[in-house]
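Sat 14:20. Reprocessing the chain from the morning session after the first attempt stalled halfway. Input below, unchanged.
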Amino acid sequence: MPELKDIQGIEDIKWMVDRFYGKVREDGLLGPIFLSHIGNDWTAHLNIMYNFWNMAIFGNRDYTGNPFQKHKHMPLDSIYFDRWLLHFHATLDERFDGPVTNDTKKKAQTIAATFLHRITSLRQS
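Finished this time. C-alpha cells:
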C-alpha cells in the first residue's frame, strides 16, 4: 500500500475529482442522476469541479459559479448525500491523509448538509 500524503495542489485535486466521479458514474443510485444531467461528455463538468475544489481547498479564484443553483430543484434526499459522502471520503482515503485532507472532508460534509437543508426547505415552502 502506498504511503498516504496530504492534498498538495491541483494535480492531487484532479486525481481526487477524476477518481471520485468515476465511482459516482458506476454507482447505481448516483450514476443515473449524473447521467441525466451531464450525459456522456464529462469534460466540462470535471473542469468545473477541478476549479471548484481548488477554490474550496486552496482559495484559488478560478471558480465563479453557484453550485446550489444546479442542484436546488433535483429530487435529492439524505440517501443521495450520504452516498456522495461515502464515495468522497473513500476516494480521499485511498491516497491522502493530513490536515488539508481532513479539512476537505469537513468541507464536503458541510456542503452536503447545507444542500440537503436548503433543498428540503425549498420543498416545504
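Residues 10-124 form a domain with the Globin-like fold (CATH 1.10.490.10).
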